[in-house]
Amino acid sequence: xxxxxxxxxxxxxxxxxxxxxxxxxxxxxxxxxxxxxxxxxxxxxxxxxxxxxxxxxxxxxxxxxxxxxxxxxxxxxxxxxxxxxxxxxxxxxxxxxxxxxxxxxxxxxxxxxxxxxxxxxxxxxxxxxxxxxxxxxxxxxxxxxxxxxxxxxxxxxxxxxxxxxxxxxxxxxxxxxxxxxxxxxxxxxxxxxxxxxxxxxxxxxxxxxxxxxxxxxxxxxxxxxxxxxxxxxxxxxxxxxxxxxxxxxxxxxxxx
Amino acid sequence: xxxxxxxxxxxxxxxxxxxxxxxxxxxxxxxxxxxxxxxxxxxxxxxxxxxxxxxxxxxxxxxxxxxxxxxxxxxxxxxxxxxxxxxxxxxxxxxxxxxxxxxxxxxxxxxxxxxxxxxxxxxxxxxxxxxxxxxxxxxxxxxxxxxxxxxxxxxxxxxxxxxxxxxxxxxxxxxxxxxxxxxxxxxxxxxxxxxxxxxxxxxxxxxxxxxxxxxxxxxxxxxxxxxxxxxxxxxxxxxxxxxxxxxxx
Lengths: 256, 249
Hints:
Chain A has helices at 4-17, 19-26, 39-54, 92-101, 123-128, 155-162, 185-188; strands at 72-74, 108-113, 119-122, 132-139, 145-154, 170-175, 180-184, 194-199, 202-203, 213-215, 228-234. Chain A is α+β, with helices and mostly antiparallel strands. In chain A, a hairpin with a 5-residue loop joins strand 4 (132-139) and strand 5. The longest helix of chain B has 29 residues, at 96-124. The radius of gyration of chain B is 22 Å and the shape is elongated.
């Protein structure tokens, strides 16, 4: 459960820093990702705006009991350090492999961009932040589901350390398999959005994104990026090209 | 409606023709994109959870992933009898990049068309008068007579549009009041965002995988209706029927 005592000062800092985007959220007018004239991306944005307008910003995903925990396949990238993997990144892959061999003792998460004070956090730093454990359903875009227990630091607690600027609107994530993705501040500050380092009571396994993966419980599974490397806060939508979703032909917002 | 010149063929009012066109086009695109979505994971389950490592209700021989997804060895999360994880060893056939976005874009048109039709037909009394089989019209004798007429390929002839015979009313009522709304209900029940705001959706639908399976069953029902509906149009005068639903009188 969330440790509010340790979270409160941080949350206040983030929330006051984000008064600007909170105001925008109230009017339901979120900045749209670019569509490049693609009708499907226009439809994605329609769904995004409609959900942001109609759904409460802080409604919680259902949490389950330990007895509900199920088998869960590991799909997509299951080892960024494996040169035979289809998603192997020639620059990041060897770096990841070295970190993994060292038990991720040298893993650092840089939080930078539109923030007052960029920070670099190790695994132990993350574990010292507020800790939240939640048993939630992972909903894969392919059509399958699984229930697992996730333990991590609420993203909002980690962001609070870096103090996002008032104009910050998006949080971008870079992963060791080369993927880059982002979520808006509504999802970033959601209490169930975690930087998860634990799964089912132990360290996050390799196939599920070790050492740290994102959990975005109100969106489809692929938004919960695995193998997190770096966080970049931005005032506007950043299109990372082919490393991101939109130019690969996928919906950026996927709450449906 | 200027319907008198064809006498017994008044055709359909404008709102019926327009919403019928919107619903037909959107249902066709939803069928196409929905079947494309199903390629990625042609397995159906019951309850909240279902994946390649859990038992299925039905495995559909649909697309390249049918019985063709290799996994590595299992690793237990807790004890030997508890839940496991296994790594999938290859990328599966997956059309969801365009198929999901097309499905949800089209769903907006479908939602608008169905809501407009149900609202306007309820307000005008068309739904109560012509579609819902009233208690008076509903008798076993009338039903048997209708079934006999259909089985001998002698359905009532001579007009397009209401009044409808009893079997026809039951078919239309099941589709517009049950199967089509069920698609929206079970569809929304699969949304990870909407179900956080309306948890009742998950409770009523019986869980994500139950909703997904019912979404599929309802699709089959609607597909079957389309085939029978088209056959009846052919049997009862295709020109008159098309004229009535496309341009009215």
